């Protein structure tokens, strides 16, 4: 399938808009106050740093990041932010933990035109299901099969289009690739 599960620089250049849907990094099994309070493990903290450095090295620094308000998502983003620099604007949305797919589509509908590269950091199965809904029908079947399995921790789906994100609908974006820490591990944590 190729390096970085399908992601090719020429495909990225052809898209004026890029959406990255990412699952939070590896967490503990149980939180002290239930699922919502779960924290990242040491491995999860390392995964977050790798993802931040890898995105920077690939030139995929987002203009805007929309992050779930759950502690594990916030910790993932905290680990990614230093390598991403001061560029991304960050918003936290409780709805990304509570409301599933609708919250993702609501965020897309509210995206500003200046936001050409957006990262939404949330939870499974929402991130993989939204990716399936957005991906064009003629997307790489191997990549679509990976989405059917769900996203492992700290893995992101990269989608692209020429349309503004506010206009994205079902099966209207190119599925450009799937990236995880194992694909970006060349950059030290």
From TrEMBL:
InterPro entries: His_Pase_superF_clade-1, His_PPase_superfam, Mito_Ser/Thr_phosphatase. CDD domains: HP_PGM_like. Keywords: Hydrolase. The keyword Hydrolase applies. Gene3D superfamilies: Phosphoglycerate mutase-like. GO terms for molecular function: hydrolase activity. This is Phosphoglycerate mutase. It comes from Bifidobacterium asteroides. The lineage of its organism: Bacteria, Bacillati, Actinomycetota, Actinomycetes, Bifidobacteriales.
């Amino acid at each position: 399938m190729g390096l970085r599960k399908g992601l090719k620089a020429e495909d990225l250049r052809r898209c004026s808009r890029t959406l990255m849907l990412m699952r939070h990094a590896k967490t503990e099994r149980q939180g002290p106050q239930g699922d919502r309070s779960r924290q990242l493990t040491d491995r999860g903290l390392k995964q977050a740093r790798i993802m931040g450095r890898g995105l920077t090295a690939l030139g995929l620094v987002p203009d805007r990041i929309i992050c779930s308000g759950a502690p594990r998502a916030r910790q993932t983003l905290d680990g990614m932010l230093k390598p991403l620099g001061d560029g991304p604007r960050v918003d936290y949305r409780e709805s990304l933990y509570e409301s599933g797919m609708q919250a993702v589509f609501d965020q897309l509908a509210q995206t500003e035109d200046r936001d050409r590269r957006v990262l939404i950091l949330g939870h499974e199965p929402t991130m993989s299901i939204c990716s399936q809904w957005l991906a064009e029908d003629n997307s790489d079947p191997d990549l679509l099969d990976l989405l059917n399995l769900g996203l492992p921790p700290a893995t992101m789906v990269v989608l692209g289009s020429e349309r503004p994100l506010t206009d994205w609908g079902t099966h209207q974006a190119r599925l450009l690739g799937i990236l995880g820490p194992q694909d970006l591990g060349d950059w030290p944590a």
